Amino acid sequence: QVQLVESGGGLVQAGGSLRLSCAASGRTFNSYPMGWFRRAPGEEREFVAAISWSGDRTYYTDSVKGRFTISRDNAKNTVYLQMNSLKPEDTAVYYCGARLGSNWFSRYDYGYWGQGTQVTVSS
Questions:
Q1: Which of 95, 81, 85, 67 is nearest to 123 (CA)?
Q2: Rg (CA), the chain
Q3: What is the pLDDT of residue 75?
Q4: What is the β-pairing status of strands 10-13 and 117-122?
Q5: DSSP string, 13-78
Q6: Model pLDDT, residue 29
Q7: Most buried by CB count within 10 Å: which residue of 30, 55, 86, 116?
Q8: Cα 109 from Cα 113, distance rounded (Å)
Q9: Is-contact 79 70, C-beta < 8 A?
Q10: What was the pLDDT predicted at 30?
Q11: Taking a C-beta distance cutoff of 8 angstroms, is the pair 113, 4 a contact?
Q12: pLDDT averaged over consecutive 10-residue blocks of the chain (123 residues)?
């Protein structure tokens, strides 16, 4: 019912910024909390940030607090991840998903994953 497409990734030097977008299709987009996860080389997909359907609640993994901001524009069916002060350890493929379960932080409680967008931070 929901299809997601990530964009906005690229190559950036340490300390730089990127804004990722996740465009959704489907009439039920506004009903879902949304999250960003990332998968670094040789690692499992891990939680980055999440946002409630209305945008009034947000959650972040400790390593990105103060640097990343998740937001959504339901009129545009889009969720964003603004990434500032990027570090080499942020290098990963970033995915967005719709939260289908009850756990904000577990990849197993999300679905409708997009194909991902590559973020590479050099130093």
A1: 85
A2: 13
A3: 87
A4: parallel
A5: ETT--EEEEEEEESTTGGGS-EEEEEE-TTS--EEEEEE-SSSS-EEE-GGGTTTEEEEEEGGGTE
A6: 62
A7: 86
A8: 11
A9: yes
A10: 64
A11: yes
A12: 94 98 80 94 96 95 98 92 98 96 96 96 96
Which residue, 55, 95, 47, 53, is CA-closest to 71? 55
Supply 113's token pair.
């994953």
Q: How far, in Å, CA of 30 to CA of 38, rounded?
A: 23
Please tell me the distance from the alpha carbon of residue 51 to that of residue 59, in angstroms, as a whole number: 6
Distance set, CA 20 to CA 9, 42, 93, 102, 103 (Å): 6, 22, 11, 24, 23
Both tokens of residue 36?
A: 């960003």
Beta bridge partners of 25: 3
Amino acid symbol at 76: K
User: How confident is the model at residue 1, as a pLDDT?
Assistant: 77
Measured CA to CA, the distance from residue 99 to residue 28 in angstroms comes to: 12
What is the residue whose two structure tokens read 């990105």? Answer: 64
Q: Which residues pair with 49 in a beta bridge?
A: 36, 60
33 token code pair: 């909390």
